[in-house]
């Protein structure tokens, strides 16, 4: 039996999205999946080979995915400069090169982190990510999901790690349902 492989790619300026990505990855691994957790700056093409599920996580900046200017703003607020090198927005521009065979594209699931106090603000990084993925023909498994931080730098709102872990199990259920439908 071949092991299912998931790749969790994240962007994170202050470490909150990274923590949640680890939770999602650990949740998938606890179900027997092979999991590659990769910072968007360091994903290698071989990391993506044979991937059945791609999870993408990113912080919401200015109502959407970060840009070099918003990441520079985060650096001014104390984030490590090296983390500003590349974001999910830029990485998505290489999707067609990274996944050249349309029929072999993995299912994708997307999440973002947002400020708790901005829950009612419009726009989220995950919604933008999902739009781009759909426009490139990727099957988006679930609705974009947001997790919350108490302030720009974090920490995570209580219970968000557990919610991320539960979301990983929900993704597995959706995948099982998808597999049953196509059997
Ligand atoms: C420049 C900048 C713009 C931001 N804009 C928003 C926003 O529009 N909506 C929101 O909910 N949070 C916003 N935030 C808060 C981020 O979502 C928060 O810093 C992020 O979720 C933390 O995740 P990280 O530790 O992985 O970087 C912004 C943060 C920065 C630095």
TrEMBL record:
The protein, known as: NAD(P)-dependent dehydrogenase (Short-subunit alcohol dehydrogenase family)
Any one Gene Ontology molecular-function term assigned to this protein's record: FMN binding
Record domain Flavodoxin-like: where: 6-172
PROSITE patterns: FLAVODOXIN_LIKE
